[in-house]
Amino acid sequence: MKVFKFGGASVSSAHAVRNSVNILKMYPENKVLVISAMGKTTNALEIVARRYFNQDPDVWTIFQEVKNYHDGIIAELWGEPVALPEVEKLFGQISDRIKAGPSLNFDYEYDQIVAFGELISTQIISLYFNKIGLKNKWIDVRTCLKTDDQYRESTINWELSARLAKRVFTFENEDLYITQGFIGGTLTNQTTTLGREGSDYTAAILANLLDAEDVSIWKNVPGILNADPDFFSQTQKLDELSYKEAIELSYSGAKVIHPKTIKPLQNKNIPLFVKSFLEPEKPGTIIHSVEHALELVPVIIVKKNMALITLSPNDFSFISINSVSDVFSLFAKHRLRVGLIQQSALDLSLAFDEPEQGIENLIGQLQQKFEVKYNTGLDLITIRYYTHDSVAQIQNGRKVYVEQKSRRTARMLLK
Known about the structure:
By secondary structure, this protein is of the alpha/beta class. It has two domains: 2-288, Carbamate kinase; 299-414, VC0802-like, CATH 3.30.2130. The protein has helices at 14-25, 41-53, 59-78, 85-99, 106-114, 116-131, 158-168, 199-210, 243-252, 262-267, 321-333, 360-366, 388-395, and strands spanning 2-6, 31-35, 137-138, 176-180, 183-185, 191-193, 214-219, 224-225, 237-238, 240-242, 272-276, 285-288, 299-313, 338-343, 348-353, 370-384, 400-405, 409-414. The strands form four sheets. The chain has an eight-stranded mixed β-sheet. Strands 14-15-13-16-18-17 form a six-stranded antiparallel β-sheet. The longest helix has 20 residues, at 59-78.
């Protein structure tokens, strides 16, 4: 049994959906197909969630744009405008939620709305596949992937999810299941999400729970590249990576793989392929157990929209273990992801993903004990297997706020 994951770009249009059919026909084995929201639907539904939470009447404009986009894909797939009851029901549920007043918990409301992107895309694709004779069974993944109630970053209940998943994905009467990435459900059936871009993680979870042969993630790139082609004109494909190297890259911010994806696969030695849905016959990149030493070109990872806070004790004392502990407890409370740390006797610097709600509250709390300096709008550049030339090329006259180097990795926080 194989697990395939199709991202938003690979199902962003009627043409792309038809192309996915051709890919599936290349692999006659039993498959679980994990699908993301179509195109940029998640981004649009995030706007819906924010405007709904803020009771902005313009929420209905964005909602209608999302519906029109999906109606257009349905019309092209079916050859005429049609109302699919299963899809109309889902849009009706979004509408009903918008009409009701929000709770006081934005993260909860976010999950309840944004999750519809995956539910809608999978219903459309499942119904279309059945229409053209590609028999499949649609599964609501919330019924078998059970999580805690940490909304927007929920944690899987592995033991319970394993039991439930094996009851659902039996392959007794079906050889193709279609389900959602990114979402799960609590014990009380509240919708949760696994973190932004979490569909890769869903594919890895199901592969682990169901003992899959391998996982294939279908992208609009030929595999894992040594740099983001949006930022660099000359890139090279990496033919293979070890699990460890993939974890390093994803932790540093590589967009091609969700950071949590690798561990469930490594635990059961399940290979992961990253392949192009534009050229499905090509091998792409394989992530697997590697015994030999890898010789890689410099791999450059860019994380944008980073913030930097530098703390100095108000009483000019040393930065102590207790001080560091207090700071990290505060960052954990604000659910901030720290990507780089640098400490001296009198200063502690932390770079982290700039939160959408701003950092003013955090700074106010830190100023009770520290002198605080901060910058926003920075780039965190990580270069694995760096060379002198690659570092010089990245810096190239830009202001460097923090720089760190180890044997294989150089990291720079730049304006």
